[in-house]
Design brief:
2-hydroxy-6-oxonona-2,4-dienedioate hydrolase; 17% strand; AB_hydrolase_1; Rossmann fold; AB_hydrolase_fold; globular
Length: 287
């Protein structure tokens, strides 16, 4: 019998804080662990997600970094601006967050949408990014089938946030479909039941609109401008794109390292935290 997975047990024994900051007028939720005098690391979740995507990674990373996980703009418990969200909006919010916590330069690691935002930040603000990790990152292609699937699952989960609809959205992320992911489902269900979150999700889903997505996509010219040391991390069972796409992204970034984690879907940091943390920290610490 597998052990029950719990967000709280993941955080037990970890010296962390949860709080809110005013980030250019945007009330922004964060989790933080580690010495604030240590080098800074920012972890960014995916589309429709929230900071809990990284609860299993806070402890190991806080031993080396002042580690921040945020609910990105319009997500989780961070304020919602009330308009369709494009990559520049997320980048501006991230840079303002760095300014708010007094961080000039940070390692930035993003999963899915977070990886898209992290890459664009490294392109537009190279002086703010120490090292870059693109973890099953979005932003390199527009696959109509994947885009439709994301919209269908996400809108179903917020329009009628039952256990089943929210669980379906979570299980889509994972390679192992046999687990219930009860604690993550409960956490996300609470977020999706917030007043006004249907409209918020429509704004989040803007990047799944073909026209909007096209003007936000990154190609060889954009990726080629990245100067920060970069790790492109992919998985064997990512539902958004196969390993070939991850390798293609890495090939466009000068000097990028490419790694694949087996038996993981879109959340390797959660499904196999031990392997993820070992690889992630090796890179972030200069390996």
């Amino acid at each position: 019998m597998s052990e029950h997975e719990s967000i709280w047990s993941d955080l037990q024994g970890v010296a962390f804080t949860q709080g809110y900051l005013d980030v250019d007028g945007v009330r922004t939720r964060y989790l933080h662990a580690g010495d604030t005098n240590a080098p800074a690391l920012i972890l960014l979740h995916g589309s429709g997600g929230h900071a809990e995507a990284y609860v299993r990674n806070l402890e190991s990373h806080s031993e080396h970094f002042s580690t921040w996980v945020i609910d990105m703009l319009g997500h989780g418990y961070t304020a919602r601006p009330g308009h369709p969200l494009e990559i520049d909006h997320y980048v501006a919010h991230l840079i303002a967050f760095l300014d708010a916590v007094g961080v000039r330069k940070a390692g930035i690691s993003g999963e899915s949408l977070g990886g898209w935002v992290a890459a664009r930040t490294a392109i537009d603000h190279p002086d703010r990014v120490e090292r870059l990790v693109l973890n099953t990152a979005g932003g390199s292609q527009a696959d109509p089938e994947v885009m439709r699937r994301i919209v269908t699952l996400s809108m179903a989960a917020v329009t009628d946030p039952t256990w089943e609809t929210v669980q379906a959205r979570i299980k889509w992320l994972m390679a192992d479909k046999s687990k219930g992911y009860d604690d993550i489902v409960a956490s996300r269900q609470r977020i999706y039941r917030q007043r006004g979150f249907v409209d918020a999700m429509r704004d989040i889903m803007a990047l799944q609109d073909p026209e909007i997505r096209q003007r936000n996509l990154l190609g060889p010219t954009e990726y080629g401008k990245i100067t920060a040391p970069t790790l492109v991390l992919w998985t064997s069972d990512d539902p958004t794109a196969d390993v070939t796409e991850g390798r293609r992204i890495a090939s466009m970034i000068p000097g990028a390292r490419f790694e694949v984690l087996p038996d993981c879907g879109h959340w390797p940091q959660y499904e196999d935290p031990e392997s993820f943390d070992a690889l992630h920290l090796d890179f972030l610490l200069g390996g």
